[in-house]
DNA sequence: GCAACGCTTCGATCATGATCGAAATGTTCA
DNA sequence: TGAACATTTCGATCATGATCGAAGCGTTGC
């Protein structure tokens, strides 16, 4: 029985190193980072990081882009981000409830981006608020935007009409590994995150994947979305 | 910056062994298998398989159930299956298009179950047919069942009303690693697969994850669903 | 051209974990 | 109780791959 198993093992092996896992985790916000920055987050020397990075590029998990003497690395495709989402969800489940839960950076837990959408307490709060108001239906497996949800996002200036087909699906759940509950992802989730960045409701922190909620953002999420945050 | 990265690496390490990857792949149909059977598919001796299995149970990827002197292993939660789906999707992407694509067992490619729904050519054909008829909207990221889709499945005797909430979401896409296209998953996908098994349209093969399409099944999928298979 | 800088390649070392033979454990059935 | 069988535990061996120092490469700017 030939299956995909050997390729699966090979792929997993690539993620199985703490340094490479840190690098991939760092790149989960979808932005590009330099080799030096990634060496830092991996906690290894630049030459070791370089070796890790070349393996990840070779296996097409990362793309590299040269800008002057620097090399910027980013996730190769959204598919890789989605795979990592799924793995982090399982990784966050502690098999032994007696030992203390993994210490998660409070800023990270508060608010971060997950590839292209909001995650952490903020992501879950926004999602919950939209659920409460009937803008969404969502469970761990699947999600859909209601007519009221489309109208709500439309009023915020988000144009969800796809350039190609009007019947495109917009909404999927992403299991939040820090909150252990689903939050809004998919095109609708990306649109909300884009809006929040554009209106300066959230700001990316210079390092790390966490984002800062501005005062204006706090008001907007509370008043416009009705989020309890 | 404390993140989930160490847990991610640990989890990946568990999948990174070819034997364990084979075991997990074998269990992707959601059924339970004995330790001996799994040793066979992993291509290792029973004592080695036992060591692998205990690690997978310890990390809560598998559940074990004792029946007499045998031990039956199965995936611990649907979340694990969904994670493996995502990994297989990425694993199936060949980073080097020049080398020949991984040889996939033809029976596996033809028709198999992916945890609780149909996959392979059969899964994709059924999905395509439902898309053509307007029963579904589906892309790589998200999916939704239309009113006509609900009616269609209802006519087949599938009751999609959730015991709890009526507004539950039913439908999600699962990227087929052998066909490299999405097929129907989620509760609707599981319901279709259940129906097919109950009506003897498909039969599980004694070993492996692939299923056999019966003559009656071929007719049903073609005539009832309009699947080109 | 040369210096500065970012990054990669090479080479040697070292640790982790996969493997199986042998033996022990546990379960069922007579 | 004892025999048959499935599975696990123990112990020793062996291979893979992560690591970093040193050196090399390539780009930029003076």
Structural overview:
Two copies of one chain form a homodimer. The model of chain A has no long low-confidence stretch (mean pLDDT 90). Chain A has two domains: 72 residues, Winged helix-like DNA-binding domain superfamily/Winged helix DNA-binding domain (Arc Repressor Mutant, subunit A); 118 residues, no CATH class. Chain A has a three-stranded antiparallel sheet with strand order 1-3-2. A two-stranded antiparallel sheet of chain A has the order 4-5. By secondary structure, chain A is α+β, with helices and mostly antiparallel strands. At the A-B interface, α1, α2 and α5 of A face α1, α2 and α5 of B. The first copy, chain A, binds a DNA duplex (30 and 30 nucleotides) through α3 and α4.
């Amino acid at each position: 029985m030939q299956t995909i198993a050997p390729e699966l093992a090979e792929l997993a092996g690539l993620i199985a190193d703490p340094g490479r896992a840190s690098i991939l985790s760092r790149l989960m916000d979808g932005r590009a980072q330099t080799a030096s920055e990634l060496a830092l987050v991996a906690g290894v020397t630049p030459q070791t990081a370089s070796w890790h990075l070349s393996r990840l590029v070779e296996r097409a998990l990362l793309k590299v882009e040269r800008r002057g003497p620097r090399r910027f690395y980013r996730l190769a495709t959204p598919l890789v981000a989605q795979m990592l989402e799924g793995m982090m969800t399982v990784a966050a489940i502690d098999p032994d409830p007696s030992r203390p839960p993994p210490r998660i950076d409070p800023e990270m837990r508060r608010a971060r981006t997950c590839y292209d959408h909001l995650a952490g307490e903020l992501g879950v709060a926004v999602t919950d608020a939209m659920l409460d108001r009937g803008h969404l239906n969502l469970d761990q497996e699947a999600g859909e935007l209601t007519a009221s949800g489309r109208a709500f996002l439309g009023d915020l200036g988000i144009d969800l009409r796809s350039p190609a087909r009007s019947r495109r699906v917009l909404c999927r759940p992403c299991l939040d590994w820090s909150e252990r509950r689903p939050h809004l992802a998919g095109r609708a989730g990306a649109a909300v995150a884009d809006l929040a960045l554009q209106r300066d409701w959230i700001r990316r922190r210079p390092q790390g994947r966490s984002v800062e909620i501005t005062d204006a953002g706090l008001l907007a999420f509370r008043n416009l979305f009705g989020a309890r945050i």
